[in-house]
Every structure is written in C-alpha cells, then in structure tokens.
Design brief:
Blueprint: E1 4-7, H1 18-25, H2 29-41, H3 46-49, H4 55-63, H5 71-80, H6 89-100, E2 104-109, H7 114-120, E3 132-135, H8 136-139, H9 146-156, E4 163-167, H10 170-178, E5 182-185, H11 189-203
Parallel strand pairs: 1-2, 1-4, 2-3, 4-5
Protein name: HAD superfamily hydrolase
Organism: Enterococcus cecorum DSM 20682 = ATCC 43198
Pfam families: Hydrolase
Length: about 210
Amino acid sequence: MIDTIIYDMGNVLIEWNPEKFLHLIETDEERIAKLRTAIFTSGYWPRQDTGELDADKAYHMSLALLDDSYQESLRQIYYHWYEYADVFSKMQDYAQELKKQGYKLFVLSNTAASYYDLAKKGYLPIDEILDGKILSYEVEMVKPDVAIYQYLLDKYGLEAQNCVFLDDIKGNIEAAQSLGMQGIQVLSENQALADLKVLLSKHGRLSEQ
C-alpha cells in the first residue's frame, strides 16, 4: 500500500527551464551564450547542489569569466531565477488533499540553499505540510546516487514499497525503483497528476476502503 509521496522540486513543484530564464533576462543571443557557458557549462551551477559552492561563490566565479556588463543578468539567474518560473500549483494543491487523507509527504531534490528562499517567498506552499525533506546540498549527495534515496528512507523510517517518487528525469526514477519504490516520471504537470491519481486509486491508502 502506498502511503508516502516523495517529490523532486524542479519541474515537479516549480518549473526549472534555464533556457527560458536566460531568454527572459537577455535578448542578445551572443550574450545569452556567454551567460550559459559561464553559469552552466562551467559546472559552477551544479556545484551548488553538491554543497561545494554557495550562491555567492558560484556567482563570483561565473562573473570572473565575463565582463561587468553581465553582473545584473548573472545576479538575476543566481538569486532570482524562480521569479521567472511557473509554479506547479495543481500539483501542490493536490498535495494538500493528500495530506488531509493521511499521506506522508517528502521532498527529495538536487538543490541548493535557494530552496529556502522559494519556500519563504511562497513558491513552495507544500513546504509547510511536509513530513520531511532531503536537499542534496545539505547531505552532499545527489541523485541518481542510490545513497541519497536510502538516506531518506533511513532517516524517516520509510518502507520503499510504500513510497512513490515523482521526478522529471528518467534516471532518477530508475534509481528510486531499484530500491523498491514506485516511480512517476513527470513529463507535464497534468500527466503526472493523472498518473498519480490512477496509482493511488489502485494502491493508495484509500484504495481498499
């Protein structure tokens, strides 16, 4: 019986689309390409998720690859990217319903300290009802390393077979499934919600009532 829902953050609870954000912040393709290289191709951005760099260090390392005319655009990406993102409100609203039905809710995400900015500013209302969360930068492990999934299970005393994990990346789903969890790959908010509702209607807490 599934009694636990585990959510990734990016493209599950809130949009993560760096190309969209870059094109909203800059319009010149050459400048966009330089920003992309300095932030993402450089590897500085994902090193926030591993806990190696905080936003300030990553920002200044990226800026060192550019001239000062990029300073504000870099700042927008590093500190304000979520202001350009769509919130997956239907997914988070449904989580409220599931909580009322007695489901346990968790977040397991490759993310940095910006998670707390999103929660504080209202982009992650689900945070208020979570039973727990594992953020990669805090534990210095990242998906799809199975160790981070096992860490979640162990810390909160969860049984893998009672969990369903939602993530937008196939490899991350497969890692969860290797431990015995159910998995739903999020290709769109509506698709994921439909798949989750079908799964819970068959195997969820209320399916036998």
